Amino acid sequence: AAACGRIHPIGSGPMVWYQMFEYAVGHWMQKATEHVLGCVLCSPGCFSLFRGSALMDDNVMKMYTIMPTEPSHYLQYDQGEDRWLCTLLLQQGYRVDYAAAADAWTYAPEGFNEFFNQRRRWMP
Fold first, then answer.
1. Dihedral-angle region of residue 10 (phi above 0 means left; psi in -120 to 50 means alpha; beta otherwise)
2. How far apart are CA 97 and CA 108, in angstroms?
3. Residues 6 or more apart whose Cβ sits within 8 Å of residue 48
4. CA separation for the pair 50, 43 (Å, rounded)
5. How many angstroms from the chain centroid is the CA of residue 8?
6. What is the residue-wise DSSP string for the chain?
7. What pLDDT does residue 124 have?
């Protein structure tokens, strides 16, 4: 139902170099390992492909579009929406894969403030 590929951060400076290392270890190796084990847990939003029929599954879309009403919902629904969507797909028996041969390049935050704001959004 979903697939993700290798993401290559581009830009210059120490913050970008750190993210290049982080993506190589924390993303490429982790996603490859999850793929070999048979279950990729999260297809990152910046480079993912989703099957439309899986997204429109009533049990997926109905849960994904619920508006938060309790404090715990804000953590579950609004933080890391790509992870929440993949969790819903996996719960319905769909598969999420990793395609190491598919590459995408994305501009990484070059300054600390931009980096911090990005990561703060990703945190639970």
1. beta
2. 24
3. 2, 3, 4, 82
4. 9
5. 14
6. -EEEEEEEEE--SHHHHHHHHHIIIIIIIHHHHHHHHT------TTSEEE-HHHHT-HHHHHHHTPPP-SHHHIIIIIS-HHHHHHHHHHHTT--EEEEEEEEEEEEPP-SHHHHHHHHHHH--
7. 59
- The amino acid that residue 86 corresponds to is C
Dihedral angle of Cα 16, 17, 21, 26, to the nearest 10 degrees: -20
Rounded CA separation 34/96 (Å): 10
Q: Does the pTM of the predicted model rise above 0.70?
A: yes
Residue among 81, 27, 91, 33 nearest 58 (CA): 91
Q: Which regions in the chain score pLDDT beneath 50?
A: none
CB 90 within 8 A of CB 27: no
pLDDT at position 103: 92
